[in-house]
Amino acid sequence: MRRCALDATSARLDDPARWRLRRSRVRLLRVTLTGPAAEITLNGGGRKAIEVARWASRRGHPTQIAREDLLWGLLADASSESVRILRRGQVDLGRLWADLRRWHQSA
Fold this sequence. Notes:
By secondary structure, the chain is mainly α. Helix content is 52%, strand content 10%. It is built from 5 helices and 3 strands. The protein has helices spanning 2-9, 44-60, 67-75, 81-88, 93-106, and strands spanning 20-23, 31-34, 39-41. It has a 3-stranded antiparallel β-sheet with strand order 1-2-3, with no helix packed on it. A hairpin with a 7-residue loop joins strand 1 and strand 2. It is globular. The mean pLDDT is 81.
């Protein structure tokens, strides 16, 4: 099926342009990521990471969220599983934040 869709449309299923982030009009805290292959309702941590990434992207390049913006969103919650994994891997979070700030200032 995936191969047929790719051949018919010349578009990849993981193409970011084919995915949309939507907020429910009824349940304002419900955010859903919808694409050609799935619909994913984000939990609180995922929603926060995406919302921070959207905020960060508007600061430099408003058209699309870059991977650096998403990293900013993941790091914004110091109690998240992502941050715990980075700490266990002995990543210097202070340096990572400094590098992200420099990247945003240059964007």
